[in-house]
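Q: Could you fold this chain for me?
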Amino acid sequence: MNQIRVKRVGIRKGIYILPNMITTASLFCGFVSIVKSIQGDHLIAAWMILLAGVFDGLDGRIARLTRTHSDFGIEYDSLCDLASFGLAPAILAYTWTLSHFNQIGWAAAFLFFACGAMRLARFNVQVSDVEKKHFQGLPIPTAAYVIASYVIFHHRWKGDVDVSSVLLLCLTIGLALLMVSTVPYRNFKKLNFKRKESFFMLVLLAVVLFVIASAPHEMIFFAALAYVASGLIEEVFQLSKKARGEGPLLAGEANEAPPGPQELRLITNQKD
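A: Sure. Below is the predicted structure, expressed as structure tokens.
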């Protein structure tokens, strides 16, 4: 009984209210999105996924700032991400147009959901080493943003339903495969800039936010697509660079060559 009490107290101490409330808000947005998709209100469902992404970006930062991060919060965040960015966009895509393809449609939606689950599982076991500077594979929130913003973009411009259905089917399958791929995507949270570079990036961020705010229905979709394309472009560039023997696949991934005899003598003399 004493051991059980100790474990329960430890769990209570590890659960912090503020960041987990924000994570719950993200989960709530994903749940509302699913309900709205089932009811046929796909535009609201898409916006709820985007709102879930806002809360998802806040919970981790607040946990770090307030030093209230915990193992419970990490696991809870992953489960909420699977619901809000895996299940919700899959149901949104299927109920919107993928249902027209019958078995292929629901299979594509399930593929997105399953690959999202595998993406999160791989991230959890590689977050401390492989994915410290670069994401390995497309992050699941970005994949969800592409699908949700595409629905918003379509409703804004009233595109052809048949063409949109085919494009969404291709997007759903392509995004699913990118999530479980090894294509590197930059983690902007880990970028360190000098003082001048930080000021430039701050100005650039303000410009980007202004452009997105001026036309959110279009620019959110194009911004998400640009990030998806950036990983593919970098992968092609690094592969071609590696084929020419000019460098490693990613900066910092290659092991340094062992020092030669002359270098060893220099190191020994410096120590002496």
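A (continued): DSSP finds ten helices and two strands in the chain.
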